[in-house]
Amino acid sequence: GESGAGKTESTKLIMQYLAAVNKSPSNLITEQILEASPLLESFGNAKTVRNNNSSRFGKYLEIHFKDGVITGAKTTDYLLEKSRIVTQASDERNYHVFYELLVGLTETEKEKYGLQSAEKYFYLNQGGSYLIEAKDDSEDFRSLLSAMQVLGFTSEEQDTIFRILAAVLHIGNVYFHRKQMKHGQEGVEIGSDAEIRWASHLLQLSVEGILRALTTKTTDTTKDSVITPLNIDQALDARDAVAKALYSTLFSWLVQRVNQIVYKEKKQTSIAILDIFGFENFRENSFEQLCINYANETFQMFFNKHVFKLEQQEYAKEKIEWQAISYPDNQPVINLISKKPVGIFPLLDDESNFPKATDVSFLEKCHYNHALSELYSRPRMSSMEFGVQHYAGQVWYSVDGFLDKNRDTFRADVMDLLISSKISMIASMFLDLRKTKEAAKTINKSNGRFVTMKPRTPTVAARFHDSLHSLLETMV
Ligand SMILES: Nc1ncnc2c1ncn2[C@@H]1O[C@H](COP(=O)(O)OP(=O)(O)OP(=O)(O)O)[C@@H](O)[C@H]1O
């Protein structure tokens, strides 16, 4: 279904149905599984121009049964849209939870986190949209609190969650001035340190540590550490990277925490529901839309294969009288996006592993390799775009930021800073993240053209591609 078609609503109806036919309707686990849904919706859904409650992540929910009784569940999440945490298009909102928090907390609680109204925050006011018709954010905040209670979140956990959300908003309001450094280098200084002090207080990190992370970059060499000043664009990127890291790590923590509570035993009889972000075509489309639309193409093909192709083969085998139904084959567009070595994703991965590559060099490679494809279009003007003819229509993608988004690098010095938090939940969240990143590192070989000897974390596109394909295997 395209964005707004009704996948999330259907998911909720299916879950309510399963809970109702469950032979032991009074069990706590069923209630907890149902309550996880509004919790993850608060943190992972947002208003877009297509849908007031658009899923900005994919969710695969396995519900386990034994003798007709629900015994547990497991959620797997896919690719939360990180860019929304720091920027929103006109008439769109950031994730629901921010607005719910700001209208739901009492004045005293807001003072505790240093919070004001949504219009005051750069990360919330870019889209110019604060309220959603037919959505009561303060009512939804109460539902969120009750979901946390049913799921057994402790008051410390709840407080840390609010601290992280408030810190993200404070960090977003940090601004910089240009500053001339020694040796003629361009550096920055902070406009006002009030927001840094709030972030330091909320996250229990040193003020100096945060200042250093936002204005300089520390690189470890074999001998010692080199500190270089950031220019204004780099400082703004560093600020946004910290905010994205905080929010997305919190989101992963929430999914894990819910699983810890409701995931009881390994493999059992199960029914699984997949609810993903639907096909999108906005005025401006970026890397996130390419990933989302690639996922939709993949599921479209999976559906065609199982509903039309294999089913009709079965009829033919059984000699059932049948009038063949034809269906469009979207394998060519899947190949255009993901087939090695010159599909759009493999080209993007190559460029992402090449330090000197830019969004422009990536675009040139796409234009060169797909010049003859009917499914691929170059822009008439010299804009930084390419077009893909999807099963649901043609989409133009702007390549600005593709390489950075795909690399998704997390500065080691910033990771160290967050691990140094005196709040153990925050420290352990980032310690776990560091472990996961270390475990995923590989030595990349890029088409034999060059070899990077430094172990690397797989790119976002590569991880997303692999996780989608292992999901399809599970579904078969
Ligand atoms: N069965 C339904 N009954 C009532 N309203 C519905 C139903 N299905 C969808 N809607 C309306 O359409 C809106 C969008 O539906 P939903 O969020 O389920 O779309 P989606 O396919 O999950 O979109 P996305 O891909 O953006 O996440 C809902 O917020 C609701 O207003």
From TrEMBL:
<keyword id="KW-0009">Actin-binding</keyword>
<keyword id="KW-0518">Myosin</keyword>
<comment type="similarity">
    <text>Belongs to the TRAFAC class myosin-kinesin ATPase superfamily. Myosin family.</text>
</comment>
<dbReference type="Pfam" id="PF00063">
    <property type="entry name" value="Myosin_head"/>
</dbReference>
<protein>
    <submittedName>
        <fullName>Unconventional myosin-XV-like</fullName>
    </submittedName>
</protein>
<feature type="domain" description="Myosin motor">
    <location>
        <begin position="1"/>
        <end position="476"/>
    </location>
</feature>
<keyword id="KW-0067">ATP-binding</keyword>
<feature type="binding site">
    <location>
        <begin position="1"/>
        <end position="8"/>
    </location>
    <ligand>
        <name>ATP</name>
    </ligand>
</feature>
<keyword id="KW-0547">Nucleotide-binding</keyword>
<keyword id="KW-0505">Motor protein</keyword>
<dbReference type="InterPro" id="IPR001609">
    <property type="entry name" value="Myosin_head_motor_dom-like"/>
</dbReference>
<dbReference type="InterPro" id="IPR036961">
    <property type="entry name" value="Kinesin_motor_dom_sf"/>
</dbReference>
<dbReference type="InterPro" id="IPR027417">
    <property type="entry name" value="P-loop_NTPase"/>
</dbReference>
